Amino acid sequence: MAQSKSIILYAGLAVLAILGGYFYLSGDGRESSRVVKIGAILPLSGDIAFLGESLRDGLLLAQSEAVNTRYTYRLIFEDDQFDAKRAVSAAEKLITVDRVDVIVTMTSREANAVNPIAEARKVVQFSTASDPKAADGYFNFVHWTPASEEARVLVTELEKRGVGKIAVFSFNQQGTLVMREEVKKRLSSTNIILVADEIFNPGEKDFRSMIGKASALKPDIYLLLSFTPELEILAKQIKDAGIKAVLTSIESFELTDKPELFEGYWYVNAADPTSGFRKKYERKYSKAPNLGAANGYDIFNMIITAAERAHRVVAPRDIANQLYVIKDFPGALGSLTMNSEGVVISQPTVKIIKGGRPEALKE
Amino acid sequence: MGILVQLVLNGLIAGAIYALIALGFNLVYATARFFNLAHGALAAVGGYSVFYFGQKLGLPLWVAVLLGILIAGLVGWALNKFIYEVLRGRQASNTVLLVASLGAFPVIQAIIAIIFSSQFQTLTRGFETRVYEIFGGVITQNQLIIMGLTVAISILLFLFLRFTVMGRMVRAISDDVEAARVVGIPVNRVIGFVFFIASAIAGLGGIMVGFETGIEPTMGMSLLLKGVIATIIGGIGNPFGGVLGGVLLGLIENLGIWKISAEWKDAIAFAVLIIFLLFRPKGILRKR
């Protein structure tokens, strides 16, 4: 009897030891492999809080639909106030204190600032940056219509409309400067002449001389690569200068809070959400999705897909491995495929401001 | 030719705004003998006051503007009364006063941001902007008003300092505060009055900038920096030197970017500051 008890006891201990060893060795020392933590560093206050909130709402919508999954997916939000320094502090806190598996960031500036941290700490970063450099490294990914695609569509449209001369005004920020470079690259192989190419710093309010210099060269169109509030001030000062030439942009007109300044102007925008996503979003939030909402939704769902597909207990590297093989993923922005550089390819659209609202441009 | 005229006009417009800020800044320095760094925040006070009374409460524009100027003046007066005057009474050095003003600046900014949020706002006049053409250059009605106001206020201030009793007391304090005290001039009261006037002028500057480009809680910092540069170029302690400095700075900035990218504008302004500090630290006009 005593011997039987001993055998059972030793057998039980052996089973526990084997199970314990299995779970310990297959994990990476992280807290609970059952919970995949996603830290989102977004501008939730300040001038572009409406974009941060949009991305947040997209993430939350996807989270609310995540049922019957192998793992639990938890979102933790940090407000970076559109400041790269705060984004870096938030990233450190999320990695060190919250021990997140994934960090989501929004713009190129913050994404580029967090990129080396994510790479060094082997945590996935998924951003909606327009600068493809934000995807440098194995652990960094970008889900935003590539600037090269947007520039291609813009230049095609310019050629279609017979534009001969263009002036470009760019906000001095990584994302817009990348767009500027891509546009210039495309223009160099066309007959369109770049008559003025000006960069202005954040906080600039006096564009009059910049406008005067450009208008003296009589461009047919002005390309404004900027965001609120500089965009509206620039547009107003162009109007005040009596300039009648057309204005266009990449993405900016979609985000303005003064669409009346851009009435009738066409522009290139990042990929548009599908009608299915729009309906879902409107049902939950009683409003139309803003720019970035669909990206947030897709990012969350791609992370779930990658984590669920991973064979073993999830660690960030496992998520990264599976993200690279995403192909023809049915996303809110259409069919999505990850390229080898960690950039999700989606197609830009051409839109127009009509009646104060953006609309798809009909041929 | 058209582009040159436009750049000169733009320089004069920008210079007029800098001159308004420098005028008040220099006036305070001439009497209180320290750089009041909170001066820039008073421009924001003026702008937001007009926003509140004109757009939120719906008062007539002229009433909102007058209230904006008055409130900016009162805030400046209060800063002096409850902070700087107290510190002067304790024989605090000018460095201490400067640091106190540096502390007051973000407090005012933060209060504005809390009340109105940090969202960028535009001030509307309620009517269309008229645009005029001058020798091939273009100028709007608002910009003409800015230039006209700067000239008018400069002339009024000159007349005030030259021909009024209070003006003479201000000049006496500016020359020698101890001698002024000895002859019975109520120094604290006069300095308080100077703060009111200087802050009201800053508030007006903020209001005009608000109509031109918009307002945000942090708008005062860039205005202050340009005002300080204008002061140093024109002559520290000479209010009219500040006007000259403002106009020169505006012209240098705008003509400076004629052939180079606009992102160099601030760099040009600060390069001019350094050149003046190295070679003519007292500025173009001496203290009067």
Q: Can you walk me through this structure?
A:
The complex is a heterodimer of chains A (363) and B (288). Chain A is an alpha/beta fold. Chain A folds into 3 domains: 1-29; 35-143 and 273-342, Rossmann fold, CATH 3.40.50; 147-269, Rossmann fold (3-Layer(aba) Sandwich), CATH 3.40.50.2300. Helices cover 43% and strands 21% of the residues of chain A. Chain A is built from 12 helices and 15 strands. The longest helix of chain A is centred in the first third of the chain and has 25 residues, at 2-26. Chain A starts with a helix and ends with a strand. The model of chain B has no long low-confidence stretch (mean pLDDT 92). Chain B is built from 11 helices and 2 strands; from the N terminus they run ααααββααααααα. Chain B is globular. With 288 residues, chain B is an all-alpha fold. In chain B, β1 and β2 form a beta hairpin. Chain B has a single domain (2-279), classed as Orthogonal Bundle (ABC transporter involved in vitamin B12 uptake, BtuC), CATH 1.10.3470. A two-stranded antiparallel sheet of chain B has the order 1-2. Classes of the chains: A alpha/beta (363), B mainly alpha (288).
Estimated radius of gyration of chain B: 19 Å
Counted up, domains of chain A total 3
Largest binding interface between chains: A-B, 27 and 33 residues
Question: Mean of the pLDDT scores of chain A?
Answer: 90
Unreliable spans of chain A: 28-32
> What's the CATH class label of the largest domain in chain A?
Alpha Beta
**Spans of at least 5 consecutive residues with low confidence of chain B:** none
- Structural class of chain B comes to mainly alpha
| Proper CATH architecture of the largest domain in chain A | 3-Layer(aba) Sandwich
Order of helices and strands of chain B: HHHHEEHHHHHHH
Oligomer: heterodimer
Shape of chain B: globular
- Estimate nothing, just give the exact number of structural domains of chain B: 1
Characterize the biggest β-sheet of chain B: 2 strands, antiparallel
Mean pLDDT of chain B: 92
